[in-house]
From TrEMBL:
<dbReference type="InterPro" id="IPR036318">
    <property type="entry name" value="FAD-bd_PCMH-like_sf"/>
</dbReference>
<keyword id="KW-0961">Cell wall biogenesis/degradation</keyword>
<feature type="domain" description="FAD-binding PCMH-type">
    <location>
        <begin position="34"/>
        <end position="213"/>
    </location>
</feature>
<dbReference type="InterPro" id="IPR016167">
    <property type="entry name" value="FAD-bd_PCMH_sub1"/>
</dbReference>
<dbReference type="Pfam" id="PF01565">
    <property type="entry name" value="FAD_binding_4"/>
</dbReference>
<feature type="active site" description="Proton donor">
    <location>
        <position position="227"/>
    </location>
</feature>
<dbReference type="GO" id="GO:0008762">
    <property type="term" value="F:UDP-N-acetylmuramate dehydrogenase activity"/>
</dbReference>
<keyword id="KW-0132">Cell division</keyword>
<dbReference type="InterPro" id="IPR016169">
    <property type="entry name" value="FAD-bd_PCMH_sub2"/>
</dbReference>
<comment type="pathway">
    <text>Cell wall biogenesis; peptidoglycan biosynthesis.</text>
</comment>
<keyword id="KW-0963">Cytoplasm</keyword>
<dbReference type="InterPro" id="IPR016166">
    <property type="entry name" value="FAD-bd_PCMH"/>
</dbReference>
<dbReference type="InterPro" id="IPR036635">
    <property type="entry name" value="MurB_C_sf"/>
</dbReference>
<dbReference type="Pfam" id="PF02873">
    <property type="entry name" value="MurB_C"/>
</dbReference>
<protein>
    <recommendedName>
        <fullName>UDP-N-acetylenolpyruvoylglucosamine reductase</fullName>
        <ecNumber>1.3.1.98</ecNumber>
    </recommendedName>
</protein>
<comment type="function">
    <text>Cell wall formation.</text>
</comment>
<keyword id="KW-0521">NADP</keyword>
């Protein structure tokens, strides 16, 4: 029996068999609609199953990659070797008093909507962020003056050894679009937020306003990886790109959005290579014109096509 079959049969004993897939096309699971094939694609339904897979990965020396919905992630055309873990089935959201608890695979948008339903204020800023709760913690997601670190109390994670650990928000190194979660090798399973009592109509008005701003300014009609670049000190990335006359520039099926210069959209079956080439073209053009280095906010992972 070859190594892939051995790994497959081992995984069937750790996770429900219907949640173990081989040679799965990743672009079918990602917001960007980009990415090659994963050797093994696992969708656990319990915390224990996540721990099982991490421990097996360590013992068998099979690499694993955690994948949310990829709203701020680009996976290369060659895909990902080893195990890809997706937590889409861990998506419960609940609240008690002013505390809201959301599992990693839930969308942060849905967490903000739950808060609205319970007249809880604090997550309004997240009403238009397309990522998962786990992804939001991973990059300390934010918008319109709010960010995750403002409202996070603590999280439960599986550490690199497969242990279930409680991490306080202060332990996560939350900063502008970053955290220490990837450096620690943690997998976020659940987040607990501290919110404030509010007025339903007032909270809804704020969320409606932010939704309007997002829909009117962002190219939501096409798949994308969200805001591609971090805000450079003293500048706005979108304005620099716009002033470089790059809107509408395309490489293959990837295009700098004509609606919002900070976005690169998958307009016509783009490949990851198209995306990366266009990102590099934007960076070099802005550097040449304004002397400003644009740092990527979006992450790029995976293998190149051979």
């Amino acid at each position: 029996m070859d190594k892939q079959k051995i790994i497959y049969h081992k995984l069937l004993n750790l996770v429900k068999p219907e949640n173990v897939k081989v040679n799965e096309t990743l672009k079918n699971h990602l917001y960007t609609k980009l990415g090659g094939v994963a050797d093994f694609f696992i969708t656990p339904t319990t915390f224990q199953e996540v721990q099982n897979v991490v421990r097996f990965s360590n013992e068998a020396e099979v690499p694993f990659t955690l994948l949310g919905n990829g709203s701020n992630l680009i996976i290369k055309d060659g895909g990902i070797r080893g195990i890809v873990i997706n937590l889409k089935h861990l998506n419960d959201i609940s609240s008690e008093g002013t505390t809201l608890v959301a599992q990693s695979g839930a969308r942060i948008i849905d967490a903000s909507r739950h808060a609205l339903k319970e007249s809880l204020s604090g997550l309004e800023f997240a009403c238009g962020i397309p990522g998962t709760v786990g992804g939001a913690l991973y990059m300390n997601a934010g918008a319109y003056g709010g960010e995750i670190k403002d409202v996070l109390d603590y999280a439960y994670v599986v550490d690199k050894d497969g242990n279930l650990v409680k991490r306080l928000a202060s332990e996560l190194g939350l900063d502008y679009r970053t955290s220490n979660i990837p450096d620690n090798g943690d997998i976020v399973l659940e987040a607990t937020f501290h919110l404030k009592p509010g007025n339903y109509e007032e909270i809804k008005a704020v969320m409606d306003d932010l939704t309007y701003k997002r829909e009117s300014k962002q190219p939501l009609e096409y798949p994308s990886c969200g805001s591609v670049f971090k805000r450079p000190p003293g500048y706005f990335a979108g304005k620099l790109i716009q002033d470089s006359n790059l809107q509408g520039t395309n490489i293959g099926g990837a295009e700098v959005s004509t609606k919002h210069a900070g976005f690169i959209v998958n307009k016509d079956n783009a490949t990851t290579s198209d995306y990366i080439s266009l990102i590099e073209h934007v960076q070099s053009t802005v550097k040449e014109k304004f002397g400003v280095d644009l740092e990527r906010e979006v992450r790029i992972i995976g293998e190149d096509l051979e």
